[in-house]
């Protein structure tokens, strides 16, 4: 039988399934996980609106002050979100607290980043949000209809692709400090746009693995706290997908 604990999403680790918890009567459900996903999404949006407003309030007085105003919030959001990820991954039992904290910090980061892109390319954020929601609905339909089967080969393929993307981004980040040309990744060339399309596709396929994990974990009677953990994993993928779509749209807009 396929091991439900194998997923390319790094937050879904086998160790979170402790048999001692499986006997509990209060177990994970799909509906409970979706409810908690909605809560996390609301927290992300609420905190994103905060930094978004900070940015545009600042440039209303001084068009060049936006970045300086939101920079501290970007740093706080990025570092705080990273710490919350580590806490959730290594102690999933605390995900009922750490997952909402992650959502708040990540929202601070996303609001600032989104505002910066919006200032450069008007209307890009609305399009990115709409496309992210559309991809989510399409992937959920494909999963529920059985059009995409989650086999072990499928899992391993997405896992390998996701890991490869992470390594390329890491090398690009490090190489930037040594003057390496990363325009192939961050520019607006056909190659760069093609890479972005590929990354968006892999992020979207990670949603399929998340859906499978949540459904099978619920069917096997995972502990109740796994609803928060599953919702957290789904939010990680959705935020990644949104950021990649935002980057892709910005590349296309810069060519106009």
From TrEMBL:
UniProt KW keywords: Membrane, Transmembrane, Transmembrane helix
Keyword Endoplasmic reticulum (UniProt): no
Keyword Nucleotide-binding (UniProt): no
Pfam families, alphabetized: BaxI_1
Chain ranges passing through the membrane: 38-55, 70-90, 97-117, 123-144, 156-179, 191-213, 225-243
Recorded superkingdom: Bacteria
Protein name: Bax inhibitor-1/YccA family protein
Organism: Draconibacterium aestuarii
Source lineage: Bacteria, Pseudomonadati, Bacteroidota, Bacteroidia, Marinilabiliales
